[in-house]
């Protein structure tokens, strides 16, 4: 085999600057805390601590991360400052080998990032920052010559312990007067109060190896140090119910239920204080860290794809990939990539169909119990089925879906078929561990099935919270292709307007309450019918060979198009009047004189 000559760096300053200034600023806290956790793991059991607190420097608060891991001497601290240098770590693309913290902190700390480390009773200090356009070690003014200085006396006089090893990092920011606890990025981007806790929850699913992560009073807005409770602990200890299910390839899915709080409106039962993250969420976890985390509306809008059509404010889902799964963190560890030819970005939605298929029975029952009454549909389904037949509308659907780079595995077809309703749901059984082939086709779809298009399931919303969860407060409907469901906002303004117009035409002999009730039912019926017709016509564009691009086909069934259709319900006023008069006549003929429910 022929040999090579190593590639060198021609412009070292440019390379260092490029690596630093391309790094996303918001990865800063992750990198600092991750380094602290890894260092603390090397301390004796019971002494493994990471603290996030503040330090006063010239009267200004600066963010400080401190850990009880092995300290560094002056030489090690000097070498540690170099990019891609690691002291006491194994270097490798799969690991967190040391360059991340420096690269992530320097874009927001030109004034400096101060490192102090205690080793054998001696405390050494070095500051790295940017001066005259160059990143490097900052020489201390008015002190001994050299980049690394001995500050043992100064530290002892400040009351700090030097009898055991520790290391701290203090963020000086861009200016001497910058409060890096409140605004770590100097206002670009701005952060809200509580940003440290929120960032920790959205990144670190689990804090392992017996390490205690402690938050100082300035961080948690409490009078004393508080222990950080990860979402792993939170689900296990504070949720009303939690269950973990195993999927193919060793993937674990945890379902958690956090019911409404009994006495605090707007919160779930797990709420204790401001440190309690009681909002529901979905997240993708690898090696104890979240790489795709969604909460609040970003979760409730996606929840139907995971089989949680209702109750998403109280149900959370965590998809945890095994360490052996064929994925790799990208360079700055913002997200994961598949180890396939195109290195697609890994999204939690890639696993939605598999999660939907393996929902425990109690989750299915809970979602079903929270679903509203669907009796309104009446003959809408019959009319839509006739329209589908007249159009000869067919569909090709995948019997099996899998994320990119994941091969077919035994049992997956049956699992996803359950999610599509083609099989009777069965209790999930842990599958045999398959061999993962990295040569598998990317995003493969197995066993396509062609059949007649079926009517989408209409899920009708009257509750303001459920409407907001689907981002439908100002929209009429949203269609979810993966589950073939359409959520309809029955509080849409055009429904109210049509109902009022119909009620005004009722004979004087009909009570106002009866007229309004019948008019509301008819207006809702017209809305659902018009949306259903628009959706069927939109779906018919899927097989158009000419004149429609893929984005245009997707837009044809979008929430925007459905909303525009719903804006003009008065176009169906003639049909609405005929139905209204018929319903009033049926009401008069009913023994109790009540509005008759639709068939």
Topology, please?
Layout: H1 12-21, H2 28-40, E1 49-57, E2 60-67, H3 74-80, H4 99-105, E3 112-119, E4 122-131, E5 134-138, E6 149-150, H5 152-157, E7 166-173, H6 195-203, E8 212-215, H7 217-220, E9 226-227, H8 231-238, E10 241-246, E11 252-257, E12 281-286, E13 289-295, H9 297-300, E14 315-321, E15 327-329, E16 336-338, H10 352-357, H11 361-369, H12 380-391, E17 394-401, H13 412-419, E18 445-452, E19 457-461, H14 464-469, E20 477-480, E21 485-489, H15 493-503, H16 512-539, H17 550-555, H18 559-567, H19 573-589
Parallel strand pairs: 1-8, 12-14, 19-21
Antiparallel strand pairs: 1-2, 2-7, 3-4, 3-7, 4-5, 4-6, 8-9, 10-11, 11-14, 12-13, 15-16, 17-18, 20-21
Helix pairs in contact: 2-4, 12-16, 15-16, 16-18, 16-19
Written overview of the protein:
By secondary structure, this protein is α+β, with helices and mostly antiparallel strands. The protein has 3 domains: 12-227, Heat Shock Protein 90 (2-Layer Sandwich), CATH 3.30.565.10; 231-375, Ribosomal Protein S5, domain 2 (2-Layer Sandwich), CATH 3.30.230; 456-599, no CATH class. Helix content is 30%, strand content 21%. It is built from 19 helices and 21 strands. The strands form 5 sheets. Strands 1, 2, 3, 4, 5, 6, 7, 8 and 9 form a 9-stranded mixed beta sheet that branches. Helix 15 (493-503) crosses helix 16 (512-539) and helix 16 packs across helix 18. Mean pLDDT is 86; it is low at 89-99, 406-446 and 592-599.
């Amino acid at each position: 085999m022929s040999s090579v000559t190593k590639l060198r760096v021609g412009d070292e300053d440019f390379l260092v600057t490029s690596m630093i200034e391309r790094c996303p600023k918001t990865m800063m806290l992750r990198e600092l805390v991750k380094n602290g956790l890894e260092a603390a793991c090397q301390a004796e059991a019971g002494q493994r601590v990471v603290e996030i607190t503040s330090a006063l420097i010239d009267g200004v608060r600066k963010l400080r991360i401190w850990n009880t891991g092995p300290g560094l001497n002056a030489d090690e601290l000097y070498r540690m400052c170099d990019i891609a240098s690691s002291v006491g770590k194994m270097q490798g693309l799969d690991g967190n080998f040391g360059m991340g913290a420096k690269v992530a902190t320097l874009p927001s700390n030109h004034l400096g990032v101060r490192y102090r480390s205690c080793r054998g009773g001696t405390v050494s200090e070095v500051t790295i920052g940017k001066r005259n356009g160059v990143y490097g070690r900052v020489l201390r003014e008015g002190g001994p010559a050299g980049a690394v200085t001995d500050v043992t006396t100064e530290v002892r006089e400040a009351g700090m312990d030097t009898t055991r090893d520790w290391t701290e990092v203090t963020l000086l920011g861009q200016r001497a007067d910058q409060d890096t606890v409140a605004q770590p990025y100097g206002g670009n981007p701005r952060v809200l109060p509580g940003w440290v806790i929120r960032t920790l929850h959205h990144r670190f699913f689990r804090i392992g190896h017996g390490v205690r992560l402690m938050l100082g009073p300035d961080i948690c807005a409490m009078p004393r140090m508080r222990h950080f409770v990860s979402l792993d602990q939170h689900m296990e200890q504070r949720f009303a119910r939690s269950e973990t299910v195993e999927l193919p390839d060793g993937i674990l899915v945890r379902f958690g239920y956090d019911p409404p709080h009994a006495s605090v409106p707007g919160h779930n039962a797990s709420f204790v204080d401001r440190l309690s993250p009681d909002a529901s969420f979905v997240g993708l976890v690898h090696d104890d860290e979240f790489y795709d985390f969604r909460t609040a509306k970003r979760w409730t809008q996606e929840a139907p794809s995971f089989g949680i059509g209702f109750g998403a404010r109280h149900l959370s889902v965590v998809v945890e990939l095994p360490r052996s799964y064929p994925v790799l963190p990208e360079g700055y560890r913002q997200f994961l990539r598949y180890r396939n030819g195109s290195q697609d970005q890994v999204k939690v939605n890639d696993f939605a169909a598999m999660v939907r298929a393996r929902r425990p029975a109690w989750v299915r029952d809970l979602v079903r119990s929270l679903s509203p009454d669907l009796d309104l549909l009446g003959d809408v389904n019959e009319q839509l089925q006739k329209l589908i037949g007249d159009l000869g509308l067919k569909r090709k659907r995948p019997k099996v879906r899998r994320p990119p780079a994941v091969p077919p595995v035994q049992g997956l077809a049956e699992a996803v078929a359950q999610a599509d309703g083609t099989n009777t749901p069965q209790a999930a059984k842990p599958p045999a561990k398959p061999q993962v082939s990295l040569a598998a086709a990317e995003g493969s779809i197995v066993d396509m099935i062609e059949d007649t298009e079926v009517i989408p399931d209409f899920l009708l919303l009257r509750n303001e919270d459920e409407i907001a969860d689907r981002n439908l407060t100002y929209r009429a409907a949203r269609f979810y292709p993966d589950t073939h469901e359409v959520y309809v906002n029955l509080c849409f303004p055009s429904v109210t307007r049509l109902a009022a117009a119909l009620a005004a035409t009722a004979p004087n002999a009909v009570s106002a309450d009866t007229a309004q009730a019948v008019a509301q039912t008819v207006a809702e019926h017209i809305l659902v019918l018009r949306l259903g017709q628009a959706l069927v016509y939109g779906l018919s564009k899927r097989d158009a060979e000419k004149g429609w691009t893929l984005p245009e086909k997707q837009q044809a069934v979008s929430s925007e198009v459905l909303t525009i259709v719903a804006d003009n319900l008065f176009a169906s006023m003639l049909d609405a009047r005929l139905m209204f008069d018929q319903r009033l006549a049926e009401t008069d003929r009913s023994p109790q004189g009540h509005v008759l429910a639709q068939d």
